[in-house]
Amino acid sequence: MSLDDIVKDAGHRMDQAVEKVSEDFAGIRTGRANPQLLNRIMVEYYGTPTPLQQLANFSVPEPRMLLVNPFDKSSVNQIEKAIRDADLGLNPANDGGTIRCVFPELTEERRKEYIKLAKVAAEDGKVAVRNIRRSARDAMQKLEDDGEVGADEHDRYTKRLESMTGERVARIDKALESKEQELMEV
């Protein structure tokens, strides 16, 4: 494996870590309806745990209301139960064919709890990015120690790796700042 391969692989893995943080942020509820909030919900469908997005369409007719339209109307009760059991603070109501989820206003205390969750998710993402950097630097150092690359080339790629790491950490910080603003919006 060359230095270029190591750096490209590290960059790809860092991008995945940033994407994971974005997914975690999407799962943190704000005062607005967001279908991504339901992404992690699994529904017991004919004895098999199935992701909710494979069983229904979502729409947002109002800023604080989410409609879930199941493809199979016989699964309405299982979907409603899964949403209720997901502990998202939603109380779904079903009219026999459609499930309405009204998002209650967030209290100041609850907003602060969600911001703490977002900060934990962001920190986990930054740690993942730094761990990827460390493993890439170890692999690059091994190539230099084995005499496969020179010190100058190693230094050049190390600087590239550092700038990639800084850029990914900055993206996570920017996403966190945006999520905090979204959560504090009343």
What does this structure look like?
The protein folds into two domains: 3-26 and 107-184, Orthogonal Bundle (Topoisomerase I, Chain A, domain 4), CATH 1.10.132.20; 35-102, Gyrase A, domain 2 (2-Layer Sandwich), CATH 3.30.1360.40. The model has no long low-confidence stretch (mean pLDDT 89). It has four helices and six strands. 57% of the residues lie in helices and 15% in strands. The chain is of the alpha+beta class and 186 residues long. The protein has a four-stranded antiparallel β-sheet, covered by helices on one side. The radius of gyration is 22 Å and the shape is elongated.
Main beta-sheet strand count, sense and barrel state:
4 strands, antiparallel
Radius of gyration: 22 Å
**Total domain units:** 2
Class from helix and strand fractions:
alpha+beta
Strand order of the largest sheet: 3-4-6-5
The percentage helix is: 55-70%
What is the CATH topology classification name of the largest domain?
Topoisomerase I, Chain A, domain 4
The CATH architecture of the largest domain can be named as Orthogonal Bundle
The succession of helices and strands, N to C, reads HEEEEHEEHH
Cα separation of the termini: 52 Å
